[in-house]
Amino acid sequence: MKKTESNKAAGQLDFNQLVVAIRYADAELSAQASRAVNISLTLRNWLIGCYIAEYELNGEDRAAYGEKVLSELSLRLNDISNCNRRQLYRYLRFYRLYPQIVATLSPQFQRLLPVSLNSGIVGTASPLSEHQRLSLLERLSYSHIEQLVAIEEVTKRAFYEVECIRGNWSVRELKRQINSLYYERSGLSLDKKKLSDLAHLNAEQTEVKLAIRDPYIFEFLGLKPREVMSESHLEDQLIDKLEEFLLELGHGFCFEACQKRILIGGEHFFIDLVFYHRILKCHVLVELKLEPFNHENIGQLNTYVNWYKQNMMIEGDNSPIGILLCTDKNHALAEYALAGMDNHLFISKYLLELPKKEEMQLFMETQIKKLAGTE
């Protein structure tokens, strides 16, 4: 007993303490890394807005570009992630709404500022204290900030900033609270504290380790969606096998993309597999769900199919189609989504060229057994 106490007094760990220490170090340093990446991305976007604003004010050749400056700039920056015209406008708005962020910059970031900003900056700022400005960078991802920047009213935007930071809300939760008119309801409420308590009750919170899954962050780091976006290792393996299976069928499938990112209504979505079918002359979108079939799944796939119809079809293409595969342990279900096609001859032709549902289901069930080591 005395020997054990002596060991602890000397700073020696028992096995349980060793486990706790390693877990703590992992959690703490993972959180620090996540915050550092997020802050760098947010400041990059703020600085891009800063440069554009400075150019519009003092650019030597700004008159030559006029209102086309963002369009021309996006063409020249097409090799940098998320620098299309719409995003450049958002960065510019971000800078104009939060010019006071300059006061929180470390020396390494201050050296990146235009010379004219060394004497201070002027802008329409949200009423944030220094503590809140630091929290904005450390506690909110750029995806949070994009939701806030879209809010026109200064007081309303500040309200959601404070509430989001206080509740550690996820991006999805922030969007939900905005859409539920939480700010407006708070203004009309006689018991604001009670309403606030209800708003924060069971609210979805941001998980530090999942911050890297933010699409802006992994593109900023140069990672491919496939490297970080799949829901599980099993799903990743199944998608690989599914891709091989469809290509080996020899029915005209030509591979185009895995985890194809699309933007719908300001929100990013990822399609598991995208093919072009040279016989049917159409895109084929494949979604894999490791869960039982539900109408939300087919609705989501139908949304992707319709988005492709509106945005990716070119002259000579037929309407895209979708294949949904839902799996629940040893059972699999295949469904097809057709982009509003009402021509039965076309539908018959499509289904003739595509793998049969039974064939797809059998393939998936066999693969799951193999990967699970039960066959």
What's the story with the biggest beta sheet?
5 strands, mixed
SS-based structural class? alpha+beta
* Straight-line N-to-C gap: 53 Å
What is the overall shape?
globular
Low-confidence segments, given as residue ranges, are 3-10, 119-125, 227-231
Count of discrete alpha- or pi-helical segments spanning 4 or more residues: 18
Overall pLDDT score: 79
> H/E series, N to C?
HHHHHHHHHHHHHHHEEEHEEHH
- The order of strands across the largest sheet is 1-2-3-4-5
Radius of gyration: 26 Å
How much strand content do the residues show? Answer: 5-15%
Architecture blueprint of SSEs:
Layout lengths: L1 H8 L5 H44 L3 H4 L3 H8 L8 H13 L9 H4 L19 H10 L2 H8 L4 H14 L3 H9 L2 H7 L3 H9 L14 H6 L4 H4 L4 H16 L4 E12 L2 E11 L4 E8 L5 H17 L9 E8 L2 E8 L5 H10 L3 H16 L3
Parallel strand pairs: 3-4
Antiparallel strand pairs: 1-2, 2-3, 4-5
Helix pairs in contact: 2-5, 4-5, 11-12, 15-18
Could you characterize what this model shows?
- It is globular, with a radius of gyration of 26 Å.
- A hairpin with a 2-residue loop joins strand 1 (253-264) and strand 2.
- The chain is built from 18 helices and five strands.
- The chain is an alpha+beta fold.
- A five-stranded mixed beta sheet has the order 1-2-3-4-5, with helices on both faces.
- It has two domains: 2-213, no CATH class; 231-372, Trna Endonuclease, Chain: A, domain 1, CATH 3.40.1350.
- Helices cover 55% and strands 13% of the residues.
- The protein has helices spanning 2-9, 15-58, 62-65, 69-76, 85-97, 107-110, 130-139, 142-149, 154-167, 171-179, 182-188, 192-200, 215-220, 225-228, 233-248, 295-311, 344-353, 357-372; strands at 253-264, 267-277, 282-289, 321-328, 331-338.
